[in-house]
Design a protein that fits this description.
Elements lengths: L1 E5 L8 H12 L5 E4 L10 H5 L4 E3 L8 H14 L1 H18 L3 H19 L3 E5 L3 H13 L3 E5 L7 H11 L5 E4 L2 H13 L7 E4 L1
Parallel strand pairs: 1-2, 1-4, 2-3, 4-5, 5-6, 6-7
Length: about 210
């Protein structure tokens, strides 16, 4: 099973994601959508109405769901203590490097996602936008070993450092990176000439 991780779904400004999921459904796939924000408005769009894929909303805001999150992380630690400790070390290093608390927030949410995708039998996660959604998918993958990929959009193409962190540090041979346009792909291929991704990682324009 394929999982999509999206910041907020559905959104009127991102119906192209709903269109993409609808295309997968037409091919006979049934991706499961995970959203870590609930929509702030009702989205009435043909693509959204036609979707058969379920949307699972992650706990948000985090402070309102302490027990759900604690149970998820406890289960992860008991099942995979080495993976959990390795992910914890990575998050601590990232937080210290940028003097930011965001990696910890993403880690908390990633724990819940990791349990959810494991229980659902998800074999691959795909995130849209090369920021929080991708960070959460990456951390969830580190916790349970599920491969991930992401599509970079719009302003993402100017975040070479961020995209480089995801690809060079964490993408494995069964992961891949997509850019929305050939221009974006070319922009970053020049960056990857100096910062090569791991062997086998594929960088392609959609």
């Amino acid at each position: 099973m394929l999982a999509y991780l999206i910041r907020m779904f559905p959104q009127l400004s991102e119906t192209f994601i709903a269109s993409e999921i609808a295309g997968l459904e037409r091919l006979g796939m049934a991706p499961r959508v995970y959203s870590y924000r609930r929509p702030v408005e009702v989205v009435r769009h043909d693509y959204v109405r036609r979707l058969r894929s379920p949307t699972v909303y992650l706990p948000d805001p985090l402070y309102r769901h302490p027990w759900q999150l604690w149970r998820a992380h406890r289960a992860l630690y008991r099942a995979r203590p080495e993976r959990y400790r390795a992910t914890l070390r990575y998050v601590a290093a990232e937080s210290a490097r940028g003097l930011r608390l965001d990696p910890w927030r993403d880690f908390v949410q990633a724990g819940y996602l990791a349990v959810a995708v494991t229980q659902a039998g998800v074999k691959h996660m795909h995130a849209h936008m090369a920021h929080t959604a991708t960070q959460v998918a990456m951390l969830a993958g580190m916790l349970v070993g599920v491969p991930f990929s992401f599509t970079a959009h719009a302003r993402d193409i100017y975040l070479s450092k961020l995209i480089g962190d995801f690809t060079v540090a964490r993408l494995k041979e069964d992961d891949f990176l997509l850019f929305g346009t050939g221009h974006a792909e070319g922009y970053h291929l020049r960056w990857f000439e100096a910062h090569p991704p791991p062997a086998g990682v594929v960088v392609r324009a959609r």
